[in-house]
Amino acid sequence: MASPSRHFLDLLEQHGYNFFTGVPCSLFEGVTRILDAEPRYGYVSAVREDSALGLAAGAYLGGRQPVVFMQNSGLGVSMNALVSLHQIYDIPALLAVSWRGEGGKDAPEHLIMGDVMQPFLQLLQIPYAVFDPATLGANVERLTRVMRETRRPVALVVGKGRLQS
User: Fold this and answer.
1) Domains recognised in the chain with CATH numbers
2) pLDDT, tens digit, for every residue of 21-59?
3) CB 3.0 to 4.6 Å from 155: which of 95, 118, 127, 145, for a disulfide?
4) Could you give the CA distance from residue 69 to residue 6 in angstroms, rounded to a whole number?
5) What are phi and psi of 161, to 5 degrees?
6) Are 80 and 54 in contact (CB under 8 A)?
7) By the 8 A CB rule, do 137 and 75 touch?
């Protein structure tokens, strides 16, 4: 049986995602390990989340369908790139956002962003779903459809333990 990370990447490929970038996060350890090990993904690691969004924009303009991996603290760092690049110029991307501080359980620096992440996504008008293995296929399908129809970013919020293996 495929690992949760392998299953997730296979699902993304089935929905046409073919450019992967982002900033490593321990909650994506399993995914990052696969992306780093298999050149077919062409994974481009970024030093900052807003840089990853710039890479994703270029990839989209070059005909690719991007996924950007980031920690939710990086979502805050990315606000300007999201609203003044991706949303203004209709550049879609799937944001896979790790939910550090979910339920008030994490290092202190993650607690506030963990608490406000969902309202923050709503404020930025970014449609999102919370990663749940039982509904993952339907959520990826829905988010991909919305992303393609609106040509705007969407987000999949990934909690601890979901994609670490």
Assistant:
1) 4-158 (3.40.50.970)
2) 999 999 999 999 999 999 999 999 999 999 999 999 999
3) 95
4) 15
5) 85, -5
6) no
7) no
Q: Please, what's the b/e burial string for 115-131 (b: 16 or more CB within 10 A of its CB; e: otherwise)? A: eebeebbeebebebbeb
Residue 63 Rama label (left phi>0; alpha psi -120 to 50; beta): left
Going by C-beta distance under 8 Å and a sequence separation of 6 or more, which residues neighbour residue 123? none
Rounded to an integer, what distance in angstroms lies between the CA atom of residue 161 and that of residue 165? 8
What is the DSSP secondary-structure string of 71-135? EHHHHHHTHHHIIIIIITTT---EEEEE-TTGGG-S-HHHHHHHHHHHHHHHHTT--EEE--TTT
Q: Which two tokens stand for residue 109?
A: 């620096």
